[in-house]
Amino acid sequence: MKSFLYEAQAARVIFGPGEIKQVQTELEKISAKRALVISTPGQEELANKVSDLIGDLCVGIHAKAVQHVPTEKVEKALEIVRALHVDSLVPIGGGSSIGLAKAIALNTSLPIVAIPTTYAGSEMTPIWGLTENGIKKTGKDLVVKPKTVIYDPNLTVNLPTLVTVTSGMNAIAHCVEGLYAENVNPIISLLAEEGIRALHSSLPAILADPYNIEVRSEALYGCWLGGTVLGSVGMALHHKLCHVLGGSYNLPHAETHSVMLPYAIWYNAAHASKAIKSIARALRVEEEDVAGSLFDLTESLGVPTSLAEIGMKESDLDQAAELAVKNPYYNPRSIEQRAIRKLLEYAFTGKRPLKGIEIQGEINS
């Protein structure tokens, strides 16, 4: 076994149907008295529900969160935080709400009690992200990691189908890249493989029966594992590509992850054999067809499988490839601009990754 470093991060997780009712107790545990509830405009009804649950501990609702966390939105939120003398943050929703809360915490050190309603997993990480002048920046700081995360599967029942499956694929992406991270370790690898298994089995089941709390719980469990992986080890090419495409071309976050994941695995497969074995076990497929099998999963879920479908322009592919090779993340395979440009071309058209040895040869051609 190779040498490794495992560093556990403090986390308090409350999991189960109806557990949103614990939010006031959790705020009291951190001595909060002036909480700001944060959501997107589309989740304002849920934000009002949280406000009712915490009663006098709520000083306001800020339902202005948007994807990719633009810096101008953060500045406006900070003005509200200062004006209301906020002492804690309660984001409810997906990555947009939690991302805004993290950006506020980065500037103020305010504690967060997070209530996720999607499967993206950012609530389990110390990672923050901001978009300024079309460029997305990310970093790590433990101050932005929520003090408590409340997972209530009941809150995901009315999640639109597209959001359900694309945010689930986003969580699978965290697990996949955790398996070939630079600082990979056996504990996180176990969590990653289990997360892929749970999400792979539950996402199709949710489409078949959206109101089945058992499969919703299984998906949320997989999301929790994916978020834990994301917060514990580094990410690689897939996340770099998604940050470029989302931040620079304003592509929808979860859909971009869904489209790009099979192609990132295709690019890396020959250089990450141990990770591929784990993914194949979780998916119950042949090792040489892991990328193609994930493409098939995405297609079967009825979500976009190409960059063209989610708003990318073919004329921007050259620039995107240039941006992707600047300040690259660690990756098991070297990042070559020509090869990345070819990868983006396949992703733009939505061509299924080829099986076996052709994975490497096709990408390099």
UniProtKB/TrEMBL annotation:
Pfam families from the UniProt entry: ADH_Fe_C, Fe-ADH
Domain Fe-containing alcohol dehydrogenase-like C-terminal: 164-347
GO MF annotation: an example: metal ion binding
Gene3D superfamilies: 3.40.50.1970, Dehydroquinate synthase-like - alpha domain
Top-rank taxon: Bacteria
CDD domains (alphabetical): MAR
PANTHER family in alphabetical order: ALCOHOL DEHYDROGENASE (PTHR11496), ALCOHOL DEHYDROGENASE 4 (PTHR11496:SF102)
Name used for this protein in its record: Maleylacetate reductase
